[in-house]
Amino acid sequence: xxxxLRVVAIEPYYWHSHRMFLEGYRxxxxxxxxxxxxxxxKWKWRMRGAAYHxxxxxxxxxxxxxxxxxxxxxxxxxxxxxxxxxxxxRNLPAILYFHENQLTYPxxxxxxxxxxxxxxxxxxxxxxxxxxxxxxxxxERFLAEVERVLSLMPDHVPEDLVPRLRERSAIVxxxxxxxxxxxxxxxxxxxxxxxxxxxxxxRWEYDKDPQSFVDALLQLRDRGxxxxxxxxxxxxxxxxxxxxxxxxxxxxxxxxxxxxxSAEAYREAVAGCDIVVSTARxxxxxxxxxxxxxxxxxxxxxxxLSYPEIIPPHLHPLFLYEKRSDFPEFxxxxxxxxxxxxxxDVREAMGRFHWRRLAPVLDxxxxxxxxRA
Length: 373
Description:
- The chain has 373 residues and is α/β, with parallel strands linked by helices.
- The protein has 2 domains: 6-175 and 355-372, Glycogen Phosphorylase B (Rossmann fold, 3-Layer(aba) Sandwich); 179-353, 3-Layer(aba) Sandwich (Rossmann fold), CATH 3.40.50.
- It is 44% helix and 16% strand.
- The protein contains 17 helices and 12 strands.
- The protein has helices at 16-28, 43-60, 78-84, 87-90, 116-127, 136-150, 161-167, 179-182, 210-222, 241-249, 263-271, 287-294, 307-310, 316-319, 327-336, 343-350, 355-372; strands at residues 6-14, 32-39, 69-73, 94-98, 130-133, 169-171, 197-201, 228-232, 254-257, 275-277, 298-302, 320-321.
- The chain has a 6-stranded parallel β-sheet with strand order 2-1-3-4-5-6, with helices on both faces. The protein has a 6-stranded parallel β-sheet with strand order 9-8-7-10-11-12, sandwiched between helices.
- Strand 1 (6-14), helix 1 (16-28) and strand 2 form a beta-alpha-beta unit.
- It is globular and about 65 Å long.
- The model has no long low-confidence stretch (mean pLDDT 94).
């Protein structure tokens, strides 16, 4: 058994998925994980200023409780934090985990291009001893964009910067604590309660393209196909025009529209559905899809973004549609002839993201960085 290490995990934006990630890792890790966090608000200010707060926290920390490794999220300006922290903390090995990045995060049509936060991510990656991404798609997109934005510099651009970043980067998927989900598995078998229920469980924002989802459902309704719909996910206090339309045009088919009041109610609702759908134009991992598929929903996803990594290759033709224009017809065929024989294969594949399996992987990387230091 390896020595138990002390890990300080720094999260300036302690919100739903980031909080679940760290709490799950702390629960299943063989190491001691202490979380330093700030509330999830004003994300731009968090990226700009959280380093000052956490550097002060390091200065005030008891000298006898020095950690072995720092584990920071992409919302921390790690370069600033290392420069501002006392030497005992500054010189600790540091791992940076990219849940998302601001170089390749898609902007809405009305948002101005601002590279500042992307440069913070780049500086943080360069200041880290190791950089972890939640998917291979995420790493490749980030490194390609780094190469592109560096070409905008007029001169004196380090030629080996991208290869250096690639050399000390790795992929560790998002771990999920499936313990609360396991009690619900088997309570509902897909297509056991007709008509089938479709769940859309993503953020209500432009990059998840809810309009394409609602437009497809309207086409299926007009063709006489029978289905039910559960629309949930974080709305951040505002609706989306597509769902305003759905509340009127799909009223008879809507089982639920809006955020669930508790995680338990959310899991119960998803476990009672048959299909989980994504029309996303952007996805670095896909926690909501993995959760739903683990609970028994059959996925209908784009053959793009991070989804080909989530779904095993031999199942791609059954569950991944090729072009956005293919989605309505793909979903129609799926409703008519669901690949129920592969439901257990999908559930088993999602199980590999359980923290029981992934915590030892992350533990090993942290031990490796600690030994190297």
